Amino acid sequence: MIHVILPAFNESRNLPAQLGRLETLQRKHGLTMAVWIVDDGSTDGTSETAKRSASNLDLRILWHDQNKGLGRALLTGIQNVCAVADFDDVAVVMDADDTHDPEIIPRMALAIDAGEDIVIMSRFVNGGDDSSAPPFRRLLSRGAGFLLRTFGPYEDVHDFSSGYRAYRVSILRQALLGYSDQLIQEAGFACMVELLLKLSVFSPRVREVPLYLRYDRKCGPSKLRIFRTVLQYLQLIIRYRTDERFLRQPRELEG
User: Fold this and answer.
1) Is residue 216 scored above 80 in pLDDT?
2) Which CATH number is associated with domain 2-242?
3) Verdict on whether the full-model pTM lies above 0.85
4) pLDDT at residue 201 above 80?
5) How far apart are alpha carbons 101 and 95 in whole angstroms?
6) How far is residue 194's CA from residue 179's CA, in Å, rounded to a whole number?
7) Helix crossing, 46-53 with 15-29: angle to 10°?
8) Does residue 232 carry a pLDDT above 90?
């Protein structure tokens, strides 16, 4: 089964199109799929819009009473999926702003079935494209990739900050067993880098698949805070390199 996690904060303008694409995908490929909306304290009727827009999806809505940030929303989604999913199910994390095309999900799931633990939709491998994104945001993503390839655990990964990934549920469960609520502590966009760094202790098999980012489909301004995110990336790299408490030793997982 494929579990799609959509952290969402004030995404009522973007969700109808995103959920419509997911419905089309499910019908076209005959997928067994659950869509988890993590409504992170939205004030624009995000959850109500999702319910009206997804009559043919197995839609599961999780709420935060107040906005806690992308990291906490992602953790809430992971925890709830891992509580009900089978070990070899696939958890796909996507942005809820319609910039990520669901059509690639079957390819990601096939890669997990073939033995990968993490599949990253990458803007920076052959076939990837992020030309529709703002220039400074593109520069930030490339700079983060260079630093993390140089000082981090993944020499062959190019896109560390991509918010579009697939995970084998078993590796997420093992990570929750080791880290518990501290699996994701970053509140903002740096949570994607943090999660990848912390999963490195499990020696995951990682594959990158080209992503054509559709930033031109996004309604509304970006929620990314550039300078804050740059600082968070640098802090994560320093902690990874110097703080023994940042990473946890793997624990045995039964089942």
Assistant:
1) no
2) 3.90.550.10
3) yes
4) yes
5) 10
6) 12
7) 30
8) no
The pLDDT assigned to 196 comes to: 94
Among 226, 29, 65, CA closest to 136: 226
| CA 34 remoteness from chain centre | 15
Helix (H, G, I), strand (E, B) or coil at 111: helix
In angstroms, the CA 37 to CA 26 distance is: 17
- First-last CA distance in the chain: 17
| Residue 14 tokens, joined | 């973007």
Q: Is 235:216 a contact under the CB 8 Å cutoff? A: no
Q: How far apart are CA 112 and CA 165, in angstroms?
A: 11
Nearest by Cα to 192 from 163, 153, 221, 213: 163
- Do residues 44 and 15 lie in contact, with contact meaning Cβ atoms separated by under 8 Å? no
Residue found under tokens 């999926």 = 81
**Residue 220 φ/ψ, nearest 5 degrees:** 95, 165
Residue written as tokens 């023994």?
Answer: 244
Distance CA 254, CA 169 (A): 13
Contacts with 181 (C-beta within 8 Å, 6 or more apart), sequence order: 75
192 or 225, higher pLDDT: 192
Answer whether 57's CB lies under 8 Å from 33's CB. yes
Q: Quick one: which H or E segment has residue 210?
A: strand 206-210
Single out the residue of 229, 147, 142 nearest to residue 188, CA to CA: 229
C-alpha 61/C-alpha 225 separation (Å) is 26
